[in-house]
Amino acid sequence: MTVIRQDDLIQSVADALQYISYYHPKDFIDAMAAAYESEENPAAKDAIAQILINSRMCAFGKRPICQDTGIVTVFVNVGMNVRFEADMSLDDMINEGVRRAYKLPDNVLRASVLADPDGKRTNTKDNTPAIIHHHLVPGDTVDIQVAAKGGGSEAKSKFAMLNPSDSVVDWVLEQLPKMGAGWCPPGMLGIGIGGTSEKAMLLAKEALMDPIDIQELQARGASNRAEELRLELFEKVNQSGIGAQGLGGLTTVLDIKVKDYPTHAANKPVAIIPNCAATRHAHIVLDGSGPAVLPAPALEDWPEITRETGDNVKRVNLDTITAEDVLTWQPGDTLLLNGKLLTGRDAAHKRMTEMLANGEQLPVDLKGRFIYYVGPVDPVRDEVVGPAGPTTATRMDKFTRTLLEQTGLLGMVGKAERGDAAIEAIRDNKAVYLMAVGGSAYLVAQAIKKARVVGFDDLGMEAIYEFDVEDMPVTVAVDSKGSSVHKTGPAKWKEIIAKRA
């Protein structure tokens, strides 16, 4: 009988979560490198380049790939010949591992888990509790898969109870445009089919733990219906033209994963869960010999890539920018931001709109300013700020018109597309929305030279900061006329791909 010691399991979970915070899986790096080589849309190619450069920087700096260090999901298979030498429950041991990982002083990870989700939404401060699934299986080891799932990609999950005769492929392709780019493509789609409603969702999540191997499947051919679906969907999703970060291009997904399970004769439950460009998962096995060890990747695992900027790059001084300057910017323009940039996301926007409604003065004047939708990781060592990539912009859509019209805010920086209501507000106020690349948080943080809290200090990572930035790269996503690159880009590349078919 194998004896698993309590601290070995705790430390193994903690080490695995630290590991995946700064190391991409090699299969992901290889797939992204191949996507970079084949991509023909300059904007999408640059986005992939930023993700790969960020990945390499994080591996060397041992800092998070993304500022959203995720909610932890754990799948545990406990061998029936295992005995635990522990005074804690299995769930408590795993949660202690999460706590230890997220509070490690050398690489503090952002705590994003909130208790009382429909009430006070109070941060638990240590990213616990994890979402834990366990099975008792034959054997004498404890097999653990850990993942850290970002909120932006998780928010794009879809579920439907289809009729038995309905097409899964048609349903997936129908959902794809509704998902937008907030899940940070290119990534993976996990698809669960069958069982019951909750089982389909669980299958989709579990599918994302598998390595990228679509090229191997293409070479050998499908041997069952799930593999047939993978091949068909991989081709058709990439024909959508959505592309990296939703900018339009040849690669929208790196792989499609499908798991199925027997279901009731009257049902066909289907779920989609996307994994983003910050794909983070690891597989560890405890056999009683001590904590599990994950090997560090080799330097040559990352391709040598440098960003290539075209003639449309403009250096912008945020301290002297005028409303007239913004009118000249075109969708797809690359800008390098310099000067003072405010931050604010969901909680700050909610509080600001409430203060405006009550006639109260905001803690900072937004007139003529730009606000960056971000909740940064706490700094360590000599950092000014920790990894600080953008959060999904559509969550701020309902606040956009109020802030533009009542404060004189000039521009916003975030991740992915804006909804129609926000685009109309931007057009009506001759403002602008700029897109930073999701999945390049550490790279973006290098452009931040100073950081200070200027409002709502009690909100922690959701407080309003003022960053001093130097050459922070962004793309004009919605211009002052209301033209959105997230609408024009995919439409253009879908047409290009269709003509080549």
How is this fold's topology laid out?
Blueprint: E1 2-5, H1 6-22, H2 26-38, H3 42-61, E2 71-79, E3 82-85, H4 90-102, E4 114-115, E5 122-123, E6 131-137, E7 142-149, H5 151-154, E8 158-162, H6 168-179, E9 187-194, H7 197-207, H8 214-220, H9 225-238, E10 253-261, E11 268-275, E12 281-286, E13 313-317, H10 323-326, E14 334-343, H11 346-357, E15 370-372, H12 397-407, E16 411-414, H13 420-428, E17 432-435, H14 441-445, E18 448-455, E19 464-478, H15 485-500
Parallel strand pairs: 1-3, 2-6, 9-10, 13-14, 14-15, 15-16, 16-17
Antiparallel strand pairs: 2-7, 4-5, 7-12, 8-11, 9-11, 14-19, 17-19, 18-19
Helix pairs in contact: 1-4, 2-3, 6-9, 11-12, 12-13
Protein model, in words:
The structure is a single chain. With 501 residues, the chain is an alpha/beta fold. It has three domains: 1-149, no CATH class; 151-277, 60s Ribosomal Protein L30, Chain: A, CATH 3.30.1330; 313-489, Fe-S hydro-lyase, tartrate dehydratase beta-type, catalytic domain (fumarase, Alpha-Beta Barrel). Helices cover 34% and strands 24% of the residues. The protein has 15 helices and 19 strands. The chain has helices at residues 6-22, 26-38, 42-61, 90-102, 151-154, 168-179, 197-207, 214-220, 225-238, 323-326, 346-357, 397-407, 420-428, 441-445, 485-500; strands at residues 2-5, 71-79, 82-85, 114-115, 122-123, 131-137, 142-149, 158-162, 187-194, 253-261, 268-275, 281-286, 313-317, 334-343, 370-372, 411-414, 432-435, 448-455, 464-478. Helix 6 (168-179) packs parallel to helix 9, helix 11 packs across helix 12 and helix 12 runs parallel beside helix 13 (420-428). The relative contact order is 0.16.
